[in-house]
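Thread: quick sanity check before group meeting

JM: Hey all, I'm pulling together slides for Thursday and realized we never actually wrote out the predicted structure for the chain we discussed last week. Dropping the sequence here so it's in one place. If anyone has concerns about the input, flag it before I start.
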Amino acid sequence: MSEDWAAVAKAINERVTELGWRQRELANRSHVSQAIVREIQHHTVERRRSPRTLESLSSTLGWHPQHLNAVLHGQRPPALGEPVDDSGDTLLSRMDTLEQRLAEITERLDDLQTDLTTVIKHVRGDREG
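JM (edit): ok, ran it. Output follows.
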């Protein structure tokens, strides 16, 4: 069965609007990097995601942990109290988790580089003035 990332983006965007949240708030609450939340919300990159990413976003949005995975696969999302099906492929899940962490680290390094550039400009300005 094909994956419908546009449906996932739509579901997330509708729920975030209902809750009155911004993208950064969803990222912080779900512990998913803002870059990944952005990719999913704007449907800019279609790639396999860790089941934990979708579970974390689902739970944070007040849904069953497997809600977004069901939306992705065109299935009926489970009700909030239903048991969680834990039949995911552990190796792929771990690799996807590592990919997510790498994206988070890259985003933080980019932020640090921007901060350092600002400090260097400030220090050089003080020396010249």
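AS: nice. The helical segments are 5-19, 23-30, 34-42, 51-60, 67-72, 90-128. The mean pLDDT is 87.
JM: adding both to the slides.
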